[in-house]
Amino acid sequence: MSAIRYAMFVKTVELQSLALAAGELCCTPSAVSHGISSLEAELGVKLMQRSRAGVKLTEEGKRLYPLSQAVLSAIERVHLAANELKRGSGGTVRIGAFTSVAVHWLPGMIKSFSELYPNAEFKLLNGDYHDVNMWLESGSIDIGFVTMPDYPKNCRSVALREDRLLAVLPKDHPLAGLESFPVAAAENESFISLMENSDNDARRALEMAGVKANVKFTTKDDYAIIAMIEQGLGISIMPELLVGQTNHVRLMPLDNGASRTIGIAIPKDSEENIMVERFIEHIKDWLAKRYA
What we know:
- Strands 3, 4, 5, 6, 9, 10 and 11 form a 7-stranded mixed sheet that branches. Strands 1-2 form a two-stranded antiparallel ribbon. A two-stranded parallel sheet has the order 7-8.
- The longest helix is centred in the first third of the chain and has 29 residues, at 59-87.
- It is 45% helix and 24% strand.
- The chain is α/β, with parallel strands linked by helices and 292 residues long.
- Helix 1 (3-15) packs across helix 4 (59-87).
């Protein structure tokens, strides 16, 4: 079994391009094409259709793609474990996080942990809720920050903290003077939403009130939403940790008190990594001190 052939297959699917995969893997497109063909010959199945328009997985390829990701993840864990043994007290922690945690929590957590364990190393992946769950399922990360209870079944979890959901409005909005935002008003406002597979928070708050938002704009970038609201293009509902102390918009609690529960999910095979377990305990201690 050649790991590079699995890497060529997985990277081509991720990037939807032989040329882009070749650039990532520092080889030529023809080498990637040959590597995938060799893997297909080894497995005895056709993994993908290649054309000028790009690549498309076959039914066999769709079934074998997540398993191929798992193969690469297992190989990576072998190398990480070997490096830990060579270094003695070191270790690598692979973390997946959504924006609010990546910006407002992780830098402080990692700084204080590194003071205790200077040989610890970190690999950080930043994405939305859907991305983090995909990384957890494939074993690409050891710890994933998630919103409870939305995490893969192959993981154990720890609830960390409740995070209020807030209405985010332009400062001069007619409702900005109220003490709390009436969620029902979202039906009559231009609503700015995250992509459907990562908009769990706002959708939960709206469903609690039996409200269907008047969605006018959709984006994958949290901070793009804030910028659009600053320009008066609409309103949104966002977590308090994300918006923080933003000065250029009006932040209001929701009249139905909706919130999200931030937690961490850990693939069960990560229990073998002592440094991961140490960092999990550090996360809990850090949060207890921050919100004391």
